[in-house]
């Protein structure tokens, strides 16, 4: 009887503690709107990606490495024009003080998106008897149309997201990843079961972006009802640095980003590419869950602070330091347990993805840091530095994969060399962000040594102990 009374008392104590903690967290978020906004966005991303991860074992069994490899090869072949077809102006939506000016930019982006895509498709069809942008099991004409639909839907969704973020409708953005992932998973699985293969996976992605955009349209109107060419010219003059400087930087950077996918797919085939891209999907979860929503709020806040002549550096890297503490543990767990876990969860044909995760883990931690502060060069008015870094990135990737091709390295050695070179680039990028924001270089070096280098040394020590001593891998 006494024990029952004790259990009841302990139970009430635990619930009281939970409610007290809940009230304290709620009070803290109410006092700090910035963290409240981040919490709202992260919550939506966690739920959305939770839905995706629950159904990933189903997707991985319906769409094998070859289908997913073809999917990524097709989209990778067109992503280099994503920024070009909008002149990179989507990021400018956050910058004007007046909403009318932001709507001018949105109209310009929509017009450019439609116009350039029509030209892009026409060129691909005109030269189809001479050159194919990619070769897959899907009829080339159909895959080009699906690629064009993807590019349009992606940019339109990004445009609506930027304007919704500018409008500070964070509750709407909370539902954004949930709506997108539910639609993507549901439509892709349905079409996959019906036997559509790679085509079904592409159609699921396109449909998800369209549904997501429709959802945001219920709450925001980023376009004027009338077109004013005079206003368009004025906006283009005001933000000419973005298409003249930032756009080339973005396009070159995107080309560099797509080199690994293009090289692995064309040299080693869609099957091995599918394993690599699956590893990227899994490792990019911390970036998608944390860094992307954080960056969208950070970018908006940095722009406001910059306009008010407030300090940007301490704010920016304070956010990075807090969130790397959240990312390092799940990435570490993925690195250590990827080899036995991935085949069990996704299926035996995905075993190679576990090897890639162990190789790419450090790189993704550094990419997580950079993703939190992406847009720093734009906010600080250093677009030329962004352009220089894009050329550096392209040169590093070119050297990395050129060396691998000349020396005939196998796929694992190629991915390892790529991972090391990308780590070097991301560290350089972070150092320049520190310099631009006038943040303490000494504090940054301590952060780098403690969390990135020190944390990864511990993670890989555990990994090799498991590999050599336990012998279960």
Portion in beta strands: under 5%
Question: Average pLDDT value?
Answer: 79
- The Rg value, from CA coordinates, equals 23 Å
Counting helices, strands and paired strands, the structural category is mainly alpha
Which stretches are low in confidence, meaning pLDDT under 50 for 5 or more residues running? Answer: 13-22
Quick one: how many beta strands?
0
Any idea what the shape is? globular
Q: What sequence of helices (H) and strands (E) makes up the elements?
A: HHHHHHHHHHHHHHHHH
Largest sheet data:
none
Q: Helicity range of the residues?
A: over 70%
Tally of separate helices? 17
Tally of individual domains = 2
User: End-to-end span in angstroms?
Assistant: 50 Å
Structural summary, described in words:
With about 475 residues, the chain is an all-alpha fold. It has 2 domains: about 25-240, no CATH class; about 240-473, no CATH class. It contains 17 helices and no strands. It has helices at about 1-30, 35-60, 65-80, 100-125, 140-165, 170-195, 195-215, 230-240, 240-270, 270-285, 285-305, 315-345, 350-370, 375-380, 385-405, 410-435, 440-470. The termini are far apart.
């Amino acid at each position: 009887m006494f024990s029952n009374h004790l259990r009841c008392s302990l139970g009430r104590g635990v619930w009281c503690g939970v409610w007290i903690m809940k009230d304290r967290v709620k009070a803290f978020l109410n006092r700090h709107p910035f963290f409240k906004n981040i919490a709202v966005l992260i919550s939506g991303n966690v739920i959305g990606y939770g839905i995706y991860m629950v159904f990933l074992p189903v997707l991985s069994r319906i769409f094998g490495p070859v289908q997913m490899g073809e999917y990524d090869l097709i989209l990778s072949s067109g992503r280099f024009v994503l920024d070009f077809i909008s002149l990179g102006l989507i990021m400018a939506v956050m910058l004007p003080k007046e909403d009318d000016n932001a709507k001018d930019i949105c109209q310009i982006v929509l017009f450019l998106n439609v116009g350039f895509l029509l030209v892009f498709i026409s060129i691909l069809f005109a030269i189809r008897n001479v050159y194919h942008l990619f070769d897959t099991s899907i009829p080339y004409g159909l895959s080009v149309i699906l690629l064009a639909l993807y590019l349009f839907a992606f940019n339109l969704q990004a445009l609506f997201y930027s304007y919704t973020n500018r409008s500070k409708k964070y509750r709407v953005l909370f539902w954004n990843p949930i709506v997108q992932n539910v639609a993507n998973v549901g439509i892709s699985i349905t079409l996959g079961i019906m036997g559509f293969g790679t085509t079904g996976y592409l159609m699921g992605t396109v449909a998800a972006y369209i549904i997501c955009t429709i959802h945001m349209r219920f709450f925001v109107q980023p376009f004027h009802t009338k077109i004013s060419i005079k206003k368009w010219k004025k906006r283009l003059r005001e933000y000419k640095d973005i298409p003249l400087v930032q756009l080339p930087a973005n396009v070159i950077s995107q080309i560099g980003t797509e080199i690994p996918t293009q090289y692995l797919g064309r040299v080693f085939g869609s099957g091995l590419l599918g394993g690599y891209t699956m590893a990227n999907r899994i490792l990019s979860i911390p970036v998608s869950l944390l860094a992307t929503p954080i960056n969208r709020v950070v970018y908006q806040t940095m722009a406001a602070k910059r306009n008010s002549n407030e300090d940007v550096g301490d704010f920016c890297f304070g956010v990075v330091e807090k969130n790397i503490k959240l990312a390092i543990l799940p990435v570490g767990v993925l690195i250590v347990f990827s080899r036995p876990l991935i085949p069990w969860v996704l299926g035996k044909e995905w075993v190679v993805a576990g090897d890639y995760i162990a190789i790419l883990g450090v790189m993704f931690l550094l990419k997580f840091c950079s993703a939190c502060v992406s847009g720093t060069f734009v906010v600080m008015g250093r677009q030329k530095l962004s352009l220089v870094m894009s050329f550096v990135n392209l040169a590093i990737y070119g050297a990395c994969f050129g060396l691998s091709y000349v020396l005939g390295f196998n796929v694992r050695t190629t991915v390892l060399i790529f991972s090391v070179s990308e780590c070097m680039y991301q560290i350089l990028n972070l150092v320049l962000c520190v310099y631009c924001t006038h943040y303490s270089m000494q504090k940054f070096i301590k952060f780098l040594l403690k969390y990135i280098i020190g944390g990864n040394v511990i993670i890989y020590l555990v990994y090799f102990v498991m590999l050599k001593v336990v012998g279960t891998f």
